[in-house]
Automatic annotation (TrEMBL):
Residues in Ketopantoate reductase C-terminal domain copies: 8-51
UniProt name for this protein: Ketopantoate reductase C-terminal domain-containing protein
Coiled coil spans: none
Species the sequence originates in: Janibacter limosus
Taxonomy, superkingdom: Bacteria
Length: 55
């Protein structure tokens, strides 16, 4: 299947960034971070991804 895809394909997140639209980072990583804080569960990976991708 992957061989049939054009080499110029872009992920939806990259398309959003290039178009100046908000990404889904807050919807996913941001929500996990918020739930972790609410329940006292560390979420270092999601915190890092939310921080890096929101810059």
């Amino acid at each position: 299947m992957l061989r049939g895809l054009p080499g110029t394909g872009q992920t939806s997140m990259l398309q959003d960034v290039l178009a100046g639209r908000p990404t889904e980072v807050d919807l996913f990583a941001g929500r996990v971070v918020a739930l972790g804080e609410q329940h006292g569960i560390p979420t270092p990976y999601n915190q890092t991804m939310a921080w890096v991708l929101s810059r």
